[in-house]
Write a structure and sequence with these properties.
237 residues; mainly alpha; two-stranded antiparallel ribbon; 8 helices
Length: 237
């Protein structure tokens, strides 16, 4: 029964995200025309400003603009089914779980890998949806803001800071309450559809710690990868 409900929930969330993404994309592809602007040029401008599967990176040095509803949707999609998050948060996690045979009910097989990947995707979907929904109520911004001009230590400190703090509408940082609710609530709620060997408070607490660790890793990727990629691919420019 747990397996059935898990896949029903997972499928519903993915369909919800895909449907919302389609609606938002359709809306943003038809902006209001400015004087002297043709429909074609307006659509081209929209295509440049909004892409549902890629997000613009922001820094703390630039003037802060509160996150919009479209950008919240964009963040939800990218951080749930974006390539980087699927690879690190889904495939890698499922591969490790399969290698360790945890939970044991799935078994160390390709089928077990698929079950673990599905479970991980379900957890990520639920957590991100909770963070976006509740965060919108009080203006909590889930995006990460880089500090590329600081020292390595300063950048690392920013990674840790933004794991537990988020910006509000005024641009100031405050405790990321929606994230706390998302990571903790998601991992304890998932006991309802997890296998018996991991459907307990001890494992849920461990998954909660892993959830914050995953956010910290994601922040570190956002902070340092652009600098690494610049050196690797544009060194000669």
């Amino acid at each position: 029964m747990k397996t059935i409900w898990r896949y029903v929930l997972q499928s519903s969330l993915i369909l919800l995200i895909a449907g919302a993404a389609t609606v938002a994309r359709a809306q943003t592809s038809q902006p209001a025309h400015q004087p002297g602007q043709t429909a074609a040029s307006a659509n081209a401008s929209s295509d440049e400003s909004f892409s549902i599967m890629s997000m613009k990176r922001h820094t703390l040095d630039e003037p802060y603009e509160p996150i919009t509803g479209e950008e919240r949707l964009q963040w939800l999609v990218v951080n749930t089914i974006g390539p980087t998050h699927l690879l690190g948060g889904g495939i890698f996690s499922a591969a490790v779980g399969t290698g360790l045979d945890r939970p044991r009910e799935y078994g160390p097989s390709w089928g077990g890998f698929g079950d673990r990947f599905g479970m991980r995707l379900t957890g990520i979907s639920v957590g991100n949806a909770i963070e976006v929904t509740y965060g919108a109520a009080w203006g909590e911004d889930p995006r990460y803001f880089r500090v590329p001009d600081r020292s390595f230590g300063g950048r690392l400190g920013n990674v840790v800071k933004q794991t537990f703090l988020a910006r509000r509408r005024d641009g100031n940082f405050a405790p990321a309450y929606a994230r706390y609710m998302a990571v903790t609530g998601n991992n304890f709620m998932s006991n309802l559809w997890r296998e018996p060997s991991e459907a307990n408070n001890g494992d849920a607490s461990l998954r909660t710690l892993e959830g914050f660790g995953g956010r910290m890793f994601s922040n570190a990727w956002e902070e340092f990868w652009p600098s690494v990629a610049s050196r690797l691919f544009h060194h000669g420019n």
